[in-house]
Q: What sequence folds into this?
């Protein structure tokens, strides 16, 4: 392994071997094979002060993300600021809406036309790692001083697949409960409900105040996230961490889904709520309470309506809420060019430091140090940030996202639409999910 | 094309009747003197390159893929024989119910859309089948949605059919009818929406073809029927329909094929909602193969769908052939 | 093609006798009512699309819907036209380029291939023709997955070539043009042969000029098919600069789920150029399409 800081000239390009294989040194950094251990020492400053300068030739970095909503402009600004500070790196952004992102990005990288660096959700890291679309970033993590105690354990471990770290967390975002402050005042609800009883009480008051359906229960997004939150609150787990079985049909799950169906049966919600319509209705002030992601904050602010955000009430036994996290990754495409790789690392380092700015987009910074700073304390999502220890993430199992879309999401939709009983829907979905997870294990073992 | 055809046959008729009978050298009329050898192949070459490369080769490649557990993002693509096909007929497998659900969706859509797409445009064409002021304007207007394309049409109608704020429900409410119809999120309402939008979109296309067919029917036949005392319905049955037969066959074929291949409306308007009920076969195959990259499964599914469609096409073809005597 | 061979029962001119005029007028009045109602069904959604594109963000998603924007604004157009990741005009241009190129290749290759199949004898003719016809019955679904891989190997993913070339081999085109060539009188070709012309000259100078209507029909059909193609571009094109209209609009929709003002503005921008083109060329287009069903 040679330590070589001149990117061109006497240094022949080498192909980077992916996970589990050997290592190659480039421009002072090493792309690690396995383990966040010694091998990355070549050139990286182990004390953690990343020499975040890029001194190669002018380069174009392709950057993909899925920030199409209210968070889009903030990311664009952060990228623009980065380019001002680093004139030699031209960042070419491509924003692909998340649903299409996870199909397009791997296809594009395989075709050589994908991003060099990008953002993806935590629960997709394992899948893309297993497909060797992205490469481990342990060295970068260590170099920029990411330490386990700066994160919650869940966020930290969920980014590791087969003992290598694949993502640098930018933020965490969870579900929250939005409510219309004016309606609450009129109905005499003095504070945001914190548990099931208080929620029912508030909804009853809202009903008496004149809103026949104050809380709409969606059947599709984000219904399965609500389900997962209550499942975790009930003490259950949706999937076994070994990635072999689905366990969301446990009693905890059945009781969670039953609660959701009850909201409709008790008349708080109409049946057949169309996709996204509960959110639009909330914006139009027809609905007083809705659960949605904290990423909607800016969109709601733009809608100019009186709202507030509180943590999701504890419907179950203890506090928990579904969460996800945006993570930076580097693709194998970038890892094949030492300049691109260096530029990518500089980029990630700079942007992850800006997670305070990112808080303006409604997200909760992943790093504790940033989270506890003043930048976050005054934001709308501050109450959510305070609950970070209750946030739960899906385990890092490859292919889990697709499995969930084909099974759990459908089961939740079916039960809420009244097409089947919660227990039955969950049971058949879980058995199918287990089958699929088994197939996936075999597939990715190769 | 009709006019040039008849013109061609008339000139041929007159020409041959005027020319003295000359025994033509067989080689000229058969073209063998100039037509053998490399010439035909040179002519066909550009087409054949594309044909072999993008039709024949992929068809065979598809078979190859369907015999493997093929995920193009992974290095290993192990041979699994007929497993992927077997899974489609094994009710315990992971692909069975989704696949047959999607086939059912395609079936329902085709069943409901084809009759409407065959009859309504015909009615419109009949209505337009005479010279009157503004006919070309109407014709152009009805054809316009087709030119706009499926994406514009689907995006527009998704908006109009929104169960909360969409125009359709607002007007229904105004008329005193139920105003919360979940057009895009519940079956059977979603089918009504999908079929309705498809009719709106392609009515003009079929109507235009019908209109040409109608205008191809010689006026004398109608006059003759009138002389025989036929009323409008009878002349429709005995003059119009037979005269339209080839056009009917053509329109039926293309409509069935288009309906069986429906993708855009489902993808943009319902996304397969409520659960997967409106996810058509093509949508599911594309999802499985290109989104989940389970290409082996998707390829097998596409072959099963193909067999069914071929049987259907041949059936329709035969149906129309039989009556034509 | 525009000339009718069927004469209307009675011309609705005021100079005819009153008793002949009345039934004709009643008939044509009913006809006009029917056609106008239908026309409204077609125009009003498009009108609403236009109107909504000038609304504010809140009004567009508000209820009840308004036909005249309360505060008309260009904000939606501003947002779309200035957003780098939704270059609607570029998408339109890409669609135009792709559809035109595709139509050109379809017509050229099909005409070239149909001629020997119609007019020449050679060994293997039956096999070639049979193979082409057989694929008429084969639905394109079996080609999606393998073609995707092939296009990936050829490095055409995310380029317009991927939506132009793979679909350019049209079995229908060959079939259609062959039918047409068969219907042409042989005399002209034979005369040219006697004059010593070779096959290419006969094709270019005799056959092609006679085939203009059929070629135009095929070109129009191929253009429209490619223009409307949705599934394939959605999967093979991913960068905003390369996407065609359907793929781009679907991106716009998923990205702005409930921003109906933006969606309608995008749809209007996508429609206007097409509509303008259509107004100019509609007779041409419609007549091309209408011929496709005849003698085909």
A:
């Amino acid at each position: 392994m040679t330590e070589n800081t001149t990117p061109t000239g006497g240094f022949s390009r080498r192909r980077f071997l992916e996970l589990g294989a050997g290592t190659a040194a480039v421009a002072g950094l090493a792309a690690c094979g396995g383990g966040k251990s010694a091998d990355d020492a070549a050139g990286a400053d182990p004390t953690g002060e990343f020499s975040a300068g890029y001194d190669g030739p002018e380069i174009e970095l392709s950057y993909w993300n899925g920030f199409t909503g209210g968070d889009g402009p903030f990311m664009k600004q952060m990228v623009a600021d980065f380019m001002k500070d680093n004139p030699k790196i031209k960042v070419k952004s491509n924003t692909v809406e998340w649903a299409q992102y996870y199909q397009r990005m791997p296809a594009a990288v395989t075709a050589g036309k994908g991003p060099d660096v990008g953002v993806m959700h935590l629960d997709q890291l394992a899948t893309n790692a297993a497909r060797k679309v992205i490469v481990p970033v342990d060295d970068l993590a260590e170099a920029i001083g990411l330490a386990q105690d700066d994160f919650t354990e869940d966020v930290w471990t969920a980014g590791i697949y087969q003992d290598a770290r694949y993502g640098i967390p930018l933020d965490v975002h969870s579900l929250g409960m939005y409510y219309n402050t004016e309606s609450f005042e009129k109905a005499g609800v003095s504070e945001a409900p914190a548990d099931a009883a208080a929620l029912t009480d508030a909804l009853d008051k809202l009903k008496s105040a004149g809103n026949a359906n104050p809380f709409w229960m969606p059947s599709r997004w984000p219904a399965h996230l609500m389900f997962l939150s209550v499942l975790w609150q009930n003490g259950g787990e949706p999937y076994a961490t070994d990635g072999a079985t689905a366990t969301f049909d446990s009693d905890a799950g059945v009781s969670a889904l039953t609660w959701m169906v009850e909201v409709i049966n008790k008349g708080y919600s109409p049946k057949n709520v169309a996709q996204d319509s509960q959110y639009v209705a909330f914006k139009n002030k027809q609905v007083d309470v809705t659960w949605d992601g904290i990423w909607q904050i800016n969109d709601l602010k733009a809608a100019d309506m009186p709202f507030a955000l509180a943590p999701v009430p504890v419907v179950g036994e203890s506090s928990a809420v579904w969460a996800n996290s945006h993570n930076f990754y580097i693709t194998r495409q970038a890892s094949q060019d030492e300049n691109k790789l260096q530029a990518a690392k500089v980029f990630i380092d700079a942007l992850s430091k800006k997670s305070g700015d990112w808080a303006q987009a409604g997200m909760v910074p992943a790093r504790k140090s940033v989270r506890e700073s003043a930048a976050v304390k005054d934001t709308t999502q501050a109450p959510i940030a305070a609950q970070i220890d209750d946030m739960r993430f899906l385990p890092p199992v490859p292919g889990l996202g697709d499995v969930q879309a084909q099974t759990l999401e459908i089961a939740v939709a079916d039960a809420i639409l009244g097409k089947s009983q919660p227990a039955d829907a969950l049971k058949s979905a879980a058995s199918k999910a287990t089958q699929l997870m088994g197939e996936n294990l075999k597939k990715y073992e190769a | 094309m009709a006019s040039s055809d008849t013109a061609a046959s008339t000139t041929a008729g007159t020409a041959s009747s005027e020319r003295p009978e000359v025994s033509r050298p067989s080689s000229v009329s058969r073209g063998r003197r100039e037509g053998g050898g490399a010439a035909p192949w040179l002519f066909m070459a550009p087409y054949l390159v594309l044909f072999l490369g993008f039709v024949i080769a992929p068809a065979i490649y598809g078979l190859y893929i369907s015999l493997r557990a093929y995920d193009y993002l992974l290095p290993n693509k192990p041979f699994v024989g007929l497993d992927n096909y077997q899974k489609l007929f094994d009710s315990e497998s992971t692909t069975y119910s989704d696949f047959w659900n999607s086939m059912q969706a395609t079936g329902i859509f085709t069943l409901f859309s084809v009759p409407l797409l065959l009859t309504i445009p015909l009615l419109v064409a009949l209505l337009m089948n005479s010279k009157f002021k503004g006919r070309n304007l109407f014709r152009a207007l009805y054809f316009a949605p087709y030119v706009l394309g499926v994406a514009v049409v689907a995006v527009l109608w998704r908006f109009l059919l929104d169960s909360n704020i969409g125009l359709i429900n607002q007007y229904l409410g105004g008329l005193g009818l139920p105003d919360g119809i979940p057009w895009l999120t519940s079956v059977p309402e979603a089918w009504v929406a999908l079929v309705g939008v498809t009719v709106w979109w392609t009515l003009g296309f079929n109507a235009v073809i019908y209109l040409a067919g109608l205008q191809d029917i010689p006026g004398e036949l109608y006059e003759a029927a009138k002389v025989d005392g036929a009323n409008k319905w009878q002349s429709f049955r005995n003059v119009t329909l037979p005269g339209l037969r080839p056009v009917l066959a053509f329109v039926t074929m293309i409509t069935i094929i288009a309906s069986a291949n429906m993708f855009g409306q489902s993808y943009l308007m319902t996304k397969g909602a409520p659960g997967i009920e409106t996810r058509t076969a093509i949508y599911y195959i594309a999802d499985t193969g290109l989104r989940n990259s389970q290409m082996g499964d998707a390829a097998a599914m596409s072959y099963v769908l193909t067999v069914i469609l071929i049987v259907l096409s041949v059936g329709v073809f035969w149906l129309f052939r039989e009556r034509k005597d | 093609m525009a000339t009718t061979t069927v004469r209307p029962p009675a011309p609705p001119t005021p100079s005819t006798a009153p008793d002949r005029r009345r039934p004709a007028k009643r008939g044509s009045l009913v006809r006009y009512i029917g056609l106008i109602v239908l026309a409204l069904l077609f125009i009003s959604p498009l009108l609403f699309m236009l109107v909504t594109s000038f609304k504010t963000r809140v009004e567009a998603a508000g209820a009840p819907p308004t036909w005249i924007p309360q505060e008309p604004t260009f904000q939606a157009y501003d947002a779309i036209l200035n957003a780098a990741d939704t270059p609607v005009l570029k998408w339109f241009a890409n669609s135009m380029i792709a559809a035109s190129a595709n139509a050109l290749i379809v017509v050229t290759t099909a005409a070239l291939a149909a001629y020997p199949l119609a007019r020449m004898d050679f060994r293997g003719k039956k096999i070639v023709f049979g193979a082409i016809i057989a694929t008429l019955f084969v639905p394109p679904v079996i080609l999606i997955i393998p073609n995707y891989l092939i296009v990936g190997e050829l490095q055409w993913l995310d380029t317009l070539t991927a939506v132009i070339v793979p679909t350019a081999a049209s079995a229908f085109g060959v079939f259609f043009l062959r039918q047409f060539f068969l219907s042409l009188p042989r005399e002209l070709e034979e005369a040219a042969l006697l004059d010593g012309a070779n096959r290419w000259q006969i094709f270019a100078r005799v056959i092609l000029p006679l085939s203009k209507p059929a070629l135009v029909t095929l070109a129009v059909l191929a253009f429209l098919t490619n223009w409307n193609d949705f599934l394939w571009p959605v999967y093979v094109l991913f960068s905003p600069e390369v996407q065609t209209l359907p793929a781009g609009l679907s991106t716009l929709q998923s990205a702005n789920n409930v921003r109906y003002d933006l969606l309608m503005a995008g749809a209007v921008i996508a429609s206007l150029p097409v509509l303008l083109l259509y107004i100019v060329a509609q007779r041409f287009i419609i007549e091309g399409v209408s011929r496709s069903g005849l003698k085909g």
Notes: Residues 1-50 of chain A have pLDDT under 50 and may be disordered. The two ends of chain A are 29 Å apart (CA to CA). Chain A touches chain B through 34 residues (CB under 8 Å).
